[in-house]
Amino acid sequence: MESTYFRRGFGLRTAIEGQITTDYASAIVDRMRAEGYRLTVGPLTFRLAREFGFCYGVDRAVEYAYEARSKFPDRRIRLVGEIIHNPHVNARLGEMGIEILHRGANGEFDFSTISPDEVILMPAFGVTVEDFRRLRERGSVLVDTTCGSVLNVWKRVESYARDGFTAVIHGKHYHEETRATASQVTKYPGGRYLVVLDMAEARLVCDYIERKSSAADLAARLAVAASPGFDFERDLVRVGIANQTTMLSGESLAIAREFRESMARRYGEGAVDQHFRTFDTICSATQERQDAVVQLLASPPDLMLVVGGYNSSNTNHLAALCRERGVRTFHIEDSDAIDLATGEIRHQPGIRQAEQTAGGWLEGVREIGLTAGASTPNNKIGETIARVCAVAGVEFTV
Question: Are 205 and 222 in contact (CB under 8 A)?
């Protein structure tokens, strides 16, 4: 009987690696790596963070998508949402005949038109437990590209639910990864989750745990980020901390400490283990990219360019990290954000904020720092450097 579930690809890497190199590699980035992550062009010096761009999980997801197209050249292939949060990668898959399924007005995917002879790609973020069940019922070939770091968080969340602890997840409740992670509690009767966006929301929960506020006040603020039927009085007695893998790692760790201290104050130090659990589920690639930005900013450039999708969580947090350190920062999706005619730059000034346009942003600039989110291909970094040089009137050849 033909296997219908694949999590380890198809062994076709050699067949597709040339195409991936053509689609995403950059000679400019290769040169910068070879020259110590620096590039001087006329009066401009570009400095590239030493960890940037595609992480292992993204590499794997993209490779599996290309392998699936090679393995099933004549079959209809559909992708459950975006494979990663980069518009160019998703558009390239579209050019290869891979169709993206979008959520309906009710926030759910409609799988009713999927037939058994189709191939379905699951994204690097994973899918919810319920969506996976529904996809299996369709009888299609499933290619699961869920990142291993995400799976590690799922295991922790499952263990919390199994042992009667509520999973408190540091993340964005609307993000695909967090939705998939939170759904893991449904594998156990009585499983519960609560998503906190940041330290401010975490402290609201901790205030309630220490009886400094009411359950009604907390529910009014966070009910949208809680599991169905969540009881704020009952379900915060025992909690386990997890995180969306692309959040700021320092904040995730600080949130875990905050919950532990609250449980100690509420129940006593000797009883903490009965009420609190945590494991380090920070994604190493996320951590490495954040650390590399901090290292680059030890000697601050005149400005930072952060390249990546506006809906990319890890890219947004890299930009936030730069701004927190007082460096003028522009988060752009790609080089097209830099207008060759006017010299202006379009950028996202903050997470989920409306795009803005800035002029005169290169005036007096001599040193430019660069990094890119884990879903950004190298060619988009290289194209950005070339576009900056063009706007600055500096001749540049690789």
Answer: yes
Residue linked to tokens 């076709």: 12
Q: Which of 177, 201, 333, 383 is catalytic?
A: 177
Whole-structure pTM value: 0.93
Beta strands 44-48; 38-41: pairing state: antiparallel
| Burial of 326 per CB tally in 10 Å (0-12, 13-18, 19+) | exposed
Axis-axis angle for helices 284-296, 249-267 (nearest 10):
110
Q: What's the token pair of residue 26? A: 């950059």
- The crossing angle, in degrees rounded to 10, of helices 249-267 and 199-209 is 10
Architecture of domain 35-55+285-392: 3-Layer(aba) Sandwich (3.40)
Work out the angle between the directed axes of helices 378-392 and 27-34 (0-180°, nearest 10): 90
Please confirm, yes or no, whether 158 is among the known catalytic residues: no
Confidence of residue 70 (pLDDT cuts 50, 70, 90): very high
| Closest to 334 in 3D by CA, of 292, 362, 370 | 370
270: left (phi over 0), alpha (psi -120 to 50) or beta: alpha
pLDDT digits (tens, 9 = 90+) for 133-170: 999 999 999 999 999 999 999 999 999 999 999 999 99
**Tokens for 40?**
């001087």
Long-range contacts of the stretch 393-398 (C-beta < 8 A, 24+): 394/41, 394/42, 394/43, 394/44, 395/42, 396/41, 396/42, 398/27, 398/28, 398/31
Confidence of residue 280 (pLDDT cuts 50, 70, 90): confident
Residue 1 has pLDDT above 70, yes or no: no
Write down the CATH number for the domain with range 57-147: 3.40.50.11270
- Number of residues in the chain: 398
Whole-angstrom Cα distance, residue 155 to residue 139? 26
> What are the sequence ranges of the domains in the chain?
35-55+285-392, 57-147, 149-281
- Is 1.25.40.10 the CATH number for 149-281? no
Instruction: Tell me 72's DSSP state.
Output: -
Instruction: Return the structure tokens found at 44.
Output: 């401009």
Whether 57-147 and 149-281 share one fold: the answer is no
